[in-house]
Every structure is written in structure tokens, then in C-alpha cells.
Amino acid sequence: MSLISEIMAHNAAFVENKEYESFRTSKFPDKKMVILACMDTRLVELLPKAMNLKNGDAKIIKNAGAIVSHPFGSIMRSILVAVYEMNAKEAIVVGHHDCGMAALRYDQILEKMRTRGITEDVLNTLSNSGIQLKPWLTGFDTVREGVENSVRMIKNHPLLPKDVVVHGLIIHPETGKLEIVVDGYSMSGR
Questions:
Q1: Which of 9, 87, 110, 153 is most buried, most CB within 10 Å of its CB?
Q2: Does the keyword Zinc apply (predicted)?
Q3: Which residues lie below 8 Å from residue 171, measured CB to CB, with a gap of 6+?
Q4: In the structure, how many helices (H) and strands (E) does the chain have?
Q5: Can you point out the beta strands (E) in the chain?
Q6: How far is CA 46 from the centre of its chain?
Q7: Could you tell me the CATH superfamily of domain 25-104+139-188?
Q8: Sheet holding 165-171, edge to edge
Q9: 3-state class (DSSP) for residue 168
């Protein structure tokens, strides 16, 4: 059975047995927060449990490394939508120890692309179009640096209201222990 077939079979039973009922909530985050976290598989259930979140408590956005790489990209747009349309009052960036983005190197991923069939013609076309793959496909030196940069990008965004508090945390992917990297309250004077 294919992966999508397994998912669809499970889903049919899930809906038929009304297992969705325990997850019902509104679209507005009860704790009035938006979280940007890494997409690491170890955090799928661990992160909400470690932060004492239940379904409906927060808007959670995930990407590789919990990175805001562009001030007008989809991550920042999602954060702004959470603030303006979903009434989020605080934003939390959560990076994690042992993050793959800390090891991501342009030359290595480029070689993997070539091995998987991406041609030099495609790479040259992108380069000649002004698309700079190197910074886009390069990680960060430390998780702390990644979190601090994302917090700074969010907090200094010209469209973010000044009263939105932005925090930065690092979670241990095995134990769930959280450490504060940026205390948004101290930055906002609260």
C-alpha cells in the first residue's frame, strides 16, 4: 500500500469514528500567540507538549530552521496575518539544538541537486535571472544566531505593530527543555 493510500484509509476511519471531535476549536489562537518553529520531525508532538499547548492555543508556522529569510516572504506574511487577522499579541521563534540548518552548506546541497537530475542549464538560468542560490541554500553558524536573526527580522519589520512582543527560544529535541535566547518582554519594556 502506498503512503497516500495509508493516509486516506486512516482518514476515512478517523472521520467515520468522529475522532475529530476532540480537536474542535476556533481559528483564533486562545493564547494569542504565533510560533515559528523548525520543521524537524522530533518536534511534531514534543514542541506543543513542552510549551503546554493544546489544539487551538497558537498559530504554528514551520520551516527549515525557524528562519525568516526574507522580510516579505511567506513566513513573515503568515506572522502578520496571525497578528492582524487572528489577534496574536506575541510571536515566538523556536529553534532547536542539533538543527540540520546549522550544517546546511551550499556546495553540498548543490551537488545533491545535480545527482538528482538538476542540470547546469537550470542552475545557469537561475543565476542569469539574478536568483542567488548560495545565500538561500546556506544555513546558519549556530542555532542561537538563527533564532536571534529571525527575532530581529520580525521585531524590526515595518508592518509589525510595536506592541507585539517577540521572543526567541531554543528547545532540546530529546528532552523538550526550553531556554530563552531573546526575552521579548525585556525588549518591549514590559
A1: 153
A2: yes
A3: 43, 46, 47, 50, 94, 95, 96, 97, 177, 178
A4: 8, 5
A5: 33-38, 58-63, 90-96, 165-171, 178-182
A6: 15
A7: Carbonic anhydrase (3.40.1050.10)
A8: 58-63, 33-38, 90-96, 165-171, 178-182
A9: strand
pLDDT in tens, 133-155: 998 999 899 999 999 999 999 99
CA gap 185, 47 in Å, rounded: 21
| Contact indicator for 147, 170 with CB cutoff of 8 Å | yes
The residue length of the chain stands at: 190
**Rounded mean pLDDT of 166-173?**
98
The C-alpha cell at 114 is 545535480
Is residue 100 scored above 70 in pLDDT? yes
Task: Show the cell assigned to 86.
Answer: 487572528
Which residues have C-beta within 8 Å of that of residue 163, sequence separation ≥ 6?
89, 188
Q: What is the DSSP string of 124-153?
A: HHHHHTT--HHHHT---S-HHHHHHHHHHH
The three cell numbers of residue 56 are 487551538
Q: Is the pLDDT of residue 67 over 90?
A: yes
Site of grid cell 528547545: 171
Cα separation, 26 vs 115, whole angstroms: 45
Indicate the SS3 state at residue 56. Answer: coil
